[in-house]
Amino acid sequence: MTAKIFSLDEVSKHRTKSDLWVIIHNKVYDITHFIAEHPGGEEVLVDEGGKDATEAFEDIGHSDEAREILENYLIGTLDEASQRKEYNVNVIRAGELPEEKSSSSLRIILPAIAIIGALVYKFVLAPKAH
């Protein structure tokens, strides 16, 4: 079976509760019959209808089970001209904490300076004050 290819314009026509398609990672899903089952409510799905919902899908942190359920609604892929090559998403699975991207050494240096300052005060400066 050959996968059907859709244009972004074609997908954008399917954005109502009775006819709802979304794009996630350049794949097209007809989620019309899933609306009533969606744990997050139908409104969030309808809001993303007819467009690329990748960032919204990933930002919420869907479980592996949710990703498997999604595959049941796959109807095709987005045509090459409409595909996004990169997404600004940090894929988070349900139950996981997001990874911190800060590599700043200040997170270590500042507390260390505070501790050293407290020790210097306690053992060097405070005894001389008495």
Automatic annotation (TrEMBL):
SMART domains: Cyt-b5
Membrane topology according to the record: Single-pass membrane protein
Entry keyword set: Electron transport, Endoplasmic reticulum, Heme, Iron, Membrane, Metal-binding, Microsome, Transmembrane, Transmembrane helix, Transport
Subcellular location: Endoplasmic reticulum membrane; Microsome membrane
Signal peptide span: none
Recorded superkingdom: Eukaryota
GO cellular component, one term: endoplasmic reticulum membrane
Domain Cytochrome b5 heme-binding: 3-79
Molecular functions per Gene Ontology: heme binding; metal ion binding
SUPFAM superfamilies xref list: Cytochrome b5-like heme/steroid binding domain (SSF55856)
Pfam families for the chain: Cyt-b5
PANTHER family referenced in this protein's UniProt entry, alphabetically: CYTOCHROME B5
Family per similarity comment: Belongs to the cytochrome b5 family.
The protein's name: Cytochrome b5 heme-binding domain-containing protein
UniProt source species: Rhizopus oryzae (Mucormycosis agent)
Upper classification of the organism: Eukaryota, Fungi, Fungi incertae sedis, Mucoromycota, Mucoromycotina
